[in-house]
Here is the input.
Amino acid sequence: MARNSFLVFLALLTAGCASQRLAGADLDRVKRPAFISRIEIEAGPRSLVFQEDDAYKQKLKKLEPKEADRRLQAKLAAAVTRFEVSERLRVNTFRQLPLEERPWMNTVDPARVATVLESFLVEEVPANAPDYDLLSRLGVDTVVEFVIQEYGMRSEKGRAGPYIQGYARMFKLEGRAEFWRRPFRVDRVAEGAEPLDPFKVGKEPTLFRQQITEMLDVLAGQFAEELSPKDRKGGAPLVEGDGPDSVHTTGREPPPPTKPPEPELAPGELPDPDP
Here is the structure.
């Protein structure tokens, strides 16, 4: 519990002056929101372990640091997909909102959003920003967006760990005026957390998966709290056509996508990635 609290504190610190708090009055004016989560094409996973930290030189023996990072990066990609990293943040944030209240009870179904944007919920998450104007067909007036800019593993002085950074924001579809923004970077190395041995991750990639998903869940809890300001006067009024047939119904959000754990490999150096 203390570790999670510290992660939240660290995420808040990294936001700095670039963040913008959501005011209750702004949320009260939202009628029909849509949630979007995306991951940039060069976001990762990245392995910045062996090339940036010579503490592993003796353990690598004849293996070049660049090649060691390439192999580890392949294992990180197998441990948790880009799709899951992106979607877990959206799904778990939405689940923790007061879904019986407006505007969240009137959120457009994410499948309809994906269809309109031609960004179907599949493994390959589009990297480019979508054409938000297309959402006007669904009556969307506000977008809540999560963007993963970079994630993976890095190391300093022989202490390795996962990290993730990006930003979340909420903006009006018309005019793109933002009224909530939260940049974030959660870094287990900078946090001083227990190091994650990259050689063990190479043999058991689920170790990376466990930590990165925990970090995403902590961020989701923080975002849900920030999207629930206490200074509200009431939800926005419903407009014609609102109702259970046109909104995402509370409790029907599918669980975050999961992936079976990779079997543990035999002891030895970092193995070659699958062809």
In short: The first strand starts at residue 33 and ends at 39.
